[in-house]
Design brief:
Blueprint (H helix, E strand, L loop, with lengths): L1 H21 L1 H12 L2 H17 L10 H22 L16 H13 L3 H12 L4 H8 L3 H29 L1
Amino acid sequence: MLDMALDALDQIDDTVRSLLVARAQEAQRLASWILHDPAAAEDAVQEAALLAWDRRRSLRNLETADAWFNRILVNVCRQELRRRARRPAVTEIEPINDGGHGRVPVRDELTRAILTLTPDEQIVVAFRFGRDLTVVQIASETGMAEGTVKSRLHYALEHLRAALEADRRVEEMLR
């Protein structure tokens, strides 16, 4: 009986270890999409990995390990977004120059608009457009109800449209 319990714990350890190694790059991309800061994303992934390792015994179903880790990562990112909201800080977003002329200003405009969203809205937008997940998949990954995901996504897109429109009006006034 004790041997079976120890084997199960070893299996959890192996699964979590493999998951953390295999998901490192994808977790980095997701955190970068949510936080819009590569250094903060790296910190968030490291913090999430440490939390996942510390909480590995709470993993009940090995088949849901990916979603379990995503929830931990999303919660770490959410905490960082809330910390940022409490302290006045200006975050510079480094534009990605991929050779496409005219794309950098759009990215900056979109990034500024995304930063106006609430942390929960940023998270659902990151899953929907950063990872191209469906509402059902986002609900599974985050533990939210499907209706909550739909609602947050709906309001996030409304807020993005309003922020982009406000940004365009300001640019027109400055011309």
